[in-house]
Amino acid sequence: MSYWPSMILLDELDKRILQQLQLDATLTNHALAERVHASAPTCLRRVRRLMNEGVIARQVAILAPDKVGAGLTAIVEITLDQQATEKLIEFEQTVTTEAAVQQCYRVSPGPDFVLIIQVADMNAYHALAHRLFATQHNIRNVRSFFSVFRSKFETRISLS
C-alpha cells in the first residue's frame, strides 16, 4: 500500500481553473470560463476531468465555527502504546466516526497522531475526550492545546 498517491500533471489552464475554484466553488461554468480565459465547453470538460481524476476531492461550504456553536478548537497529540499498522488503522477508524474530529494526521517523529477538533466548549471537549481517549486501551498519552485566537485559516493549495 502506497501512502503517496500518484500525482496528476496539471497544465496552466488546469491550474487557473483550480485557483479560481479554490476561491469560489459556486462560480457557474460560464463565469469560470470567463475568468480563466477558456471556452465554456473546454472549461466544463476540464472540471469534469479534474473531478473524475480526484484532483477536486469535493466542493463544500466552509462555516464559521463560532457562528454555528462550535467555537472551541483543540489541537490534540495522541501517542499510542502499540504502533503496529493494525493499531494505527484501528485508532483512525475510531476517530473518523466522530464528527467533531475535523482532521486526523499520522505524524512522525513525536506523537503518532495530531487531531484538529472543533466543539462547542470545554464541557463538550471533555465529553469527547472521555469517549474517544479515556476508554481506549491503546492510548499512552493525550496532549491537548486550545486555540485562543486563529490568525490564519486557509483551504487553498498553492499550485505554482
TrEMBL record:
Signal peptide: none annotated. InterPro entries: ArsR-like_HTH, AsnC-type_HTH_dom, Dimeric_a/b-barrel, Tscrpt_reg_AsnC-like, Tscrpt_reg_AsnC/Lrp_C, WH-like_DNA-bd_sf, WH_DNA-bd_sf. GO terms for cellular component: cytosol. GO terms for molecular function: sequence-specific DNA binding. GO terms for biological process: regulation of DNA-templated transcription; response to amino acid. Keywords: DNA-binding, Transcription, Transcription regulation. This is Lrp/AsnC family transcriptional regulator. It comes from Undibacterium oligocarboniphilum.
